[in-house]
Amino acid sequence: MSFQITVQPSGHQFACDADETVLSAAIRAGIGLPYGCKNGACGSCKGKVVSGMVEHKAHQQRALTDDEKAAGFALFCCATTGADLVIEAREVGGSSEYPVRKMPSRVASIEKVAPDVAVITLQLPANEVLAYRAGQYIEFLLRDGKRRSYSMASAPNLDGPLTLHIRYMAGGMFTEHVFNTMKERDILRFEGPHGSFFLREESDKPIVLLASGTGFAPIKALVEHLIHLGSTRPVHLYWGGRRPLDLYMHTLCESWAATLPNFRYVPVISHAFPEDHWTGRTGFVHAAVMADLPDLSGYQVYACGAPVVVDSARRDYVAQCGLPADEFYADAFTSEADLHT
Ligand code: FES
Q: What is the pTM (predicted TM-score) of this model?
C-alpha cells in the first residue's frame, strides 16, 4: 500500500510505501529533498508536516527536539506514514541528478596518512564510472546488512579511483577491518552517490569551508571542484583538529593558499602538546571563524566534521554572525556507534 506525498511549495508529488521513509521514497522518485546522514543524526532532512501524520523511527534528540516535533517538524529520513501527507520542505536541485547505484569496487591502495586516518582508493569495474557531485558520499554495504558512509575526497572531474578518508574508531567494526585486516584487491560493495552537501554554483558569495578531522574529505572535493570551475569566489578554509597530526593534508592546504587567488587557509588546533611546537591558531575551529569573520551575512558556509562542531557553527553563525540559515550547508559525521541502518 502506498500513500501520496505532496511537497510544498513546489507542488511535487510522489508515492511512499508503508514500509519506507519519506526520504527514501523521495529519492526513489527523483525529488531533491535535502539530506545528509539518512539516519536521524544530522537534521539536514528536517521539514514540516502540514497535514497528515508521521511516525518517527529512532533518531537523535539534537537532530529533532521534542519541541520541534510538537511544532510539526519531522526528520524525513526517519519518518514513515500510514496516510497521504502534505509536507513543507526546501528542495535542492542536483541531489538526485545522478542515479544512485550499487556496485562493487576493488581496494586499490590503503595509505595511513596519520596514526588514525587511512586514505583508501577504490577501483571501479572496467568501463564503469560513478557520477557524483563533489561533497557527496557513498555507503559501504556490509555483510550483516549494516552500512557505513564516507564522502568522496576528490572531485568527480578528476580521472582516477575514488578516494575516501577513514578515521579509526576503536571497536568500530568497519574501521577495525580497514586498519587491521583489509588488503589491497579486497572487494567492497557500495551504494551511491548520496547527499545534498555540494557547492551551490549559482551563487557568487564568498565561501567559508569549515572542516574538523576527516570532515576534510568532502571539503577537499569542494576545493578541487572550485579549482576545476576556475572559480574566483573568495574561499576561507578553516580546518580544525585536536593536534597538528590531525590535519593530515596540511601541506596540500598550504599549497592551495600559496597558489590559488582569493584562497585563505587557517589551521586551528584545540589540544596541542608542548612537543607539537604548534605556533598557529588555537582553540575551537568554529570559534576561529567567528573571530575573523564576525559578519557572515554575505557568505555561504559549508561545514563537515564532528556533530558538535557542525551544530555549534550552525547555531552561532546564524544567531551571532547574521548568516542566513539557508546559507549553511552541512554534512555532520556520525560515529559508527550511531549508525543503525
Ligand atoms: S537526520 Fe535525516 S538526513 Fe540526517
A: 0.86
